[in-house]
Design a protein that fits this description.
Helices cover 19% and strands 26% of the residues. It is built from 7 helices and 16 strands. The strands form 5 sheets. A 6-stranded mixed beta sheet has the order 5-15-12-9-11-10. A 4-stranded mixed beta sheet has the order 1-13-14-4. A two-stranded antiparallel ribbon has the order 2-3. The radius of gyration is 27 Å and the shape is elongated. The termini are far apart.
Length: 324
């Protein structure tokens, strides 16, 4: 088929006469796996250096006392006192006043759109710092304070995956040591998870949450015990068209443990967490702050100051140097 000579078509008129067709909507990916930001206990802190104390019970003993024996006294063991530095994170927006008043696709206010976007990003930044391996620094007038994350504070109970050589130094000289990566990672298997759960359980913890990344989640679903996993049944025991290839609850010798996939978890680490003994300290809640107008533009800042708190490291455990 051919077009008649002289036909005016869209290709002739597009540059001058065809009306635009643009969706008045901006599609945004919103990966909000912020388990700690959303679920960790909140506590109000009042200083940039937040300190807390923890202790554990002595090992149980079987020692009898003779009749009429004089009481004996032992020195009291002091609690362990540790600290973490609060950390400031922020996002800023600078939008010309002209950009704010012109018609736009997808939003009425560019500044408001970016404030919303940056708020979501800032929550993820806090989550990443909460679980992270970053160096703990007290800061100076010329350098920022940086909080230690859970990967540094869970130092008492950790399993080296597959015999790897990494370590978690713990707390010394008023700072949390940065985890030392092993020379090679080991394959994460069910024995590693059972060992980590046992360590926390023996110290009195109840690590009911397993926090891990995407690769760890897939590896967990491939454990031998997953073959017997039936999922939840409906409609007289049948789920039409369903293929179940996931494990959301891991039933161990130490109880049922719910796993939570988290994009902010270090890629080579699996955490076994007792939610009763982790917190997020808030010195300044996330807040939008208008900044002084110095030109023909709108300036705003979104800021938060927080501190990760591992209330009692013995309640948790972690598996380090994992290969999935």
């Amino acid at each position: 088929m051919t077009q008649f000579t002289g036909t005016s078509d869209v290709y002739d008129l597009r540059s001058t006469e065809e009306a635009e067709t643009v969706e008045d909507l901006i599609y945004r990916l919103d990966p909000q796996d912020t388990w700690a930001y959303s679920n960790a206990r909140r506590k109000k802190v009042s200083g940039v250096k937040h300190e807390w104390l923890f202790e554990s019970l002595s090992d149980a003993t079987v020692v009898g006392v003779i009749e009429g024996d004089e009481a004996a006294f032992a020195a009291v063991s002091p609690a362990t006192r540790v600290s973490n530095e609060s950390m400031i994170m922020r996002k800023t927006v600078l939008v010309s006043d002209t950009m704010e008043v012109v018609d736009k696709y997808g939003s009425k206010s560019t500044a408001a759109r970016f404030m919303l976007k940056y708020g979501l990003e800032l929550k993820r930044d806090v989550e990443k710092a909460y679980w992270g391996k970053q160096a703990h620094t007290v800061g100076t007038g010329g350098s920022a304070r940086v909080s230690a994350g859970m990967a540094s504070m869970i130092y008492a109970n950790y399993v080296k995956c597959g015999g790897a050589t990494g370590s978690v130094p713990g707390y010394a000289a008023a700072v949390w040591g940065v985890p030392i990566d092993g020379t090679s990672d080991g394959s994460f298997d069910e024995a590693d998870l059972q060992s980590a759960l046992q360590l926390a359980w023996e110290d009195g913890g109840d690590p009911s949450r397993i926090i891990l990344g995407a690769a760890g989640k897939r590896r967990l679903a491939a454990f031998t015990g997953a073959a017997a996993y039936q999922g939840f049944q409906t409609n007289q025991g049948k789920v039409a068209g369903a293929v179940i290839s996931a494990v959301d609850v891991y039933v161990s010798d130490f109880g049922a443990r719910q796993d939570a996939i988290n994009r902010s978890c270090p890629t080579d680490t699996v955490f076994c967490i007792d939610p009763e003994y982790i917190s997020l300290g808030i010195l300044r809640p996330m807040k939008k702050v208008p900044l002084a107008k110095t030109g023909d533009a709108t300036k705003e800042m979104l800021i938060v100051e927080f501190v990760p708190v591992c209330d009692n490291p013995n309640a948790h455990s972690q598996i380090i140097d994992c290969s999935f």
